[in-house]
Design goal:
This is UDP-N-acetylmuramyl-tripeptide synthetase. Catalyzes the addition of an amino acid to the nucleotide precursor UDP-N-acetylmuramoyl-L-alanyl-D-glutamate (UMAG) in the biosynthesis of bacterial cell-wall peptidoglycan. It holds the Pfam family Mur_ligase_M. Keywords: ATP-binding, Cell cycle, Cell division, Cell shape, Cell wall biogenesis/degradation, Cytoplasm, Ligase, Magnesium, Nucleotide-binding, Peptidoglycan synthesis. There is one protein chain. This protein has three domains: about 80 residues, MurE/MurF, N-terminal domain (Udp-n-acetylmuramoylalanyl-d-glutamate--2,6- Diaminopimelate Ligase, Chain: A, domain 1), CATH 3.40.1390; about 220 residues, Mur-like, catalytic domain (UDP-N-acetylmuramoyl-L-alanine:D-glutamate ligase, 3-Layer(aba) Sandwich); about 140 residues, Mur ligase, C-terminal domain (Protein-Tyrosine Phosphatase, Chain A, Alpha-Beta Complex). It is an alpha/beta fold and about 475 residues long. It is about 35% helix and about 20% strand. It has an eight-stranded mixed β-sheet, sandwiched between helices. Strands 16-17-21-18-19-20 form a six-stranded mixed β-sheet, sandwiched between helices.
Length: about 475
C-alpha cells in the first residue's frame, strides 16, 4: 500500500516518501525493507527503544508517541500509538469490519462458552462463523491457537480481512478495550455476561473495571442490540446506563421488562419464560452458570432470526468447550473436572455444580498467577474452603515471581495442603479421591503449562489423562 495514502488519516506531513510499504509491524525483529514501524509502550518493553533497530532493518517510516528528532526517516508523532495502530491496520487491510456482522461478548466469566454456543446455534442453522477468543481462533473453518482473548489490533484487522464468514463472534477482554485493540470496529451485537473481581491490578478497582467493559457498548451500531445479563448487579447498572441509547436494549432477568426470565434450574433442564412463552431449555453440559450462558446465546440467535425451536434443539446438542468444565471419569467412580475458573464466583459455580451432582467429597486444586491481581486471592481461598472438602494449592504461571516467594505465599494463604508441582498436586487429588468424590482442577483450562513439572504433561488435561491412563476415557458427552 502507498505510504502517503496510508498515513493521510493521521498526518498532513508532506515529507512522507511516495513508496509502497510491505507491512505494518510493532516488533523491530520482524521489520523488513519498506515496512512501517509503530512504536508502542508495552507492559515490559518500550517500542521506542527499538526505533533505530527498525530503521537499520529497513523501516521507511516510524509512528510513535515520544518526542524524537533527527531520525533519517519520517517520524509521525501521535498521542496514542495503540489507537494509531488500530486505525492504520484497518486502512491497510481495507476496513474489513465494515462488511461483517460482528458479535462482541464482554464480561468476566462466560465469554468463551457463550461464544461457542452462539457459533454452534448459527452454524446449525446454516450460517458461517469466525470466532476470536481465548481458546481458539476459527476462520473459514480453520482453527488456530489464540495468543490473547482479544487479538492485537494488527492481527484482528488481518483476521477480519481473511474471513469470508457471515458472522464474527469475538470475545472482548477489558485489556483489549483499554489497549485500543477494538478501536474503530463497530458491533452489531454487544453482550455483557457478568462482572466479578478480576484484573484489579490493571484497572485499579471494580468501578474502573466496569467502566472499561462498558466502553465496548460505545461502539455498538445505532441499529444494533445490547444483550445484558441483569441477574448480575453490574449488568443492571449497565442496563440503566444504556437506557437512552439508540440501539435496542434486551435484558435477561426477573423483572417485568426483562425479555427472558429463568424460572427454574435443575441439572440438564431449565424452565424459561420468553416473550410470554414458557419453554424448556435442555443442556448436555453441567452448571447453573451455563444456563445463563445459554440464555444469552438464545437471545442473540433469536434476534439474528433463528427460530425458537431450532435454538432449543441446537442447545441440546451443544457438547461444551475445551477446558471449560471438561469431565473425566476414573475407574473407581471418581469424577475429575478441568476448568478455566479463576475468580471467586467461577469457583463457586464449579464447586456448587459438583455438590448438586451428588459429590460426597470435593477436592479443589488451583493456584495463583504471579505478578497478577493478588487482591482477589483471599476471597478465592474463602470460597474454596467453604465449598470444597479439601483445598490443595499449587503453582500456576509464575510470570517472573521466584518460586520460593510463591511457595511462601501459598503456605501463608492455605493452612491445608500445598503441593507446588502442579502435576503432582493433580495426581495426589485424583489418587486420594474415592467413589462418588469429585476432583475440580481450576485456573488454566486447556492452556499449556509455562513451567516444567514432574509428570510428562503440558496441560491440566494431559496431566489428568496421564494419571488416569488405562481404562479411563474422557466422557464423549458432558452430562
Amino acid at each position: 500500500m502507498n505510504l502517503k495514502e496510508l498515513l493521510k488519516s493521521i498526518s498532513k506531513q508532506i515529507s512522507i516518501p511516495d513508496v509502497m510499504i510491505h507491512k505494518i509491524t510493532t516488533n523491530s525483529q520482524f521489520v523488513d525493507k519498506n515496512d512501517l514501524f509503530i512504536a508502542i509502550k508495552g507492559y515490559s518493553l518500550n517500542g521506542h527503544d527499538f526505533i533505530n533497530q527498525a530503521i537499520e532493518a529497513g523501516a521507511v517510516c516510524i509512528v510513535g508517541e515520544e518526542d524524537i528528532r533527527g531520525l533519517p526517516v519520517p517520524y509521525i508523532r501521535v498521542s496514542n500509538s495503540r489507537l494509531a495502530l488500530a486505525e492504520l491496520a484497518s486502512e491497510f487491510y481495507g476496513n474489513p469490519a465494515k462488511d461483517k456482522k460482528i458479535i462482541g461478548i464482554t464480561g468476566t466469566n462466560g465469554k468463551t462458552t457463550t461464544a461457542y454456543m452462539i457459533k454452534h446455534i448459527l452454524e446449525d442453522f446454516g450460517h458461517t462463523c469466525s470466532m476470536f477468543g481465548s481458546v481458539n481462533t476459527v476462520i473459514n473453518g480453520d482453527t488456530y491457537p489464540s495468543l490473547n482473548t482479544t487479538p492485537d489490533a494488527l492481527n484482528l484487522q488481518k483476521h477480519l480481512a481473511i474471513s469470508n464468514d457471515e458472522f464474527i463472534i469475538m470475545e472482548v477482554s477489558s485489556h483489549g478495550i483499554a489497549q485500543g485493540r477494538i478501536h474503530g470496529i463497530t458491533f452489531d451485537f454487544g453482550l455483557f455476561t457478568n462482572l466479578d473481581h478480576d484484573h484489579l491490578d490493571y484497572h485499579g478497582d471494580m468501578e474502573g473495571y466496569f467502566l472499561t467493559k462498558a466502553k465496548m457498548f460505545e461502539a455498538l451500531k445505532n441499529d444494533g442490540y445490547a444483550i445484558i445479563n441483569n441477574y448480575n448487579a453490574w449488568g443492571e447498572k449497565l442496563s440503566s446506563m444504556l437506557q437512552s441509547r439508540a440501539f435496542s436494549l434486551i435484558t435477561l432477568g426477573n423483572k417485568e421488562n426483562d425479555e427472558l426470565t429463568i424460572n427454574k434450574i435443575t441439572p440438564g433442564f431449565s424452565e424459561i419464560s420468553y416473550k410470554g412463552w414458557s419453554l424448556s431449555l435442555q443442556l448436555a453440559i453441567l452448571g447453573q452458570h451455563n444456563t445463563y450462558n445459554a440464555a444469552m446465546a438464545f437471545l442473540t440467535a433469536s434476534r439474528i432470526g433463528v427460530p425458537t425451536q431450532q435454538i432449543l434443539k441446537s442447545l441440546r446438542t451443544f457438547s461444551g468447550v475445551p477446558g471449560r468444565f471438561e469431565i473425566f471419569r476414573r475407574s473407581n467412580g471418581t469424577t475429575v473436572v478441568v476448568d478455566y475458573a479463576h475468580t471467586a464466583e467461577a469457583f463457586s459455580n464449579c464447586l456448587t455444580t459438583a455438590k448438586t451432582q451428588g459429590a460426597e467429597k470435593v477436592f479443589h486444586v488451583f493456584g495463583f498467577r504471579g505478578d497478577r491481581d493478588s487482591s482477589k486471592r483471599n476471597k478465592m481461598i474463602t470460597i474454596s474452603k467453604k465449598l470444597a472438602d479439601e483445598t490443595i494449592l499449587t503453582f500456576d504461571d509464575l510470570n517472573g515471581v521466584p518460586s520460593a516467594a510463591m511457595l511462601q505465599e501459598l503456605k501463608k494463604l492455605n493452612e491445608g495442603q500445598v503441593i507446588s508441582d502442579r502435576t503432582l498436586a493433580i495426581k495426589h487429588a485424583i489418587e486420594t479421591a474415592e467413589e462418588n468424590d469429585w476432583v475440580i482442577i481450576t485456573g488454566k483450562g486447556d492452556e499449556r503449562y509455562s513451567l516444567d513439572f514432574t509428570l510428562p504433561a503440558n496441560s491440566d488435561k494431559e496431566t489428568v489423562e496421564y494419571v488416569l491412563q488405562k481404562g479411563v476415557k474422557k466422557l464423549k458427552t458432558r452430562r
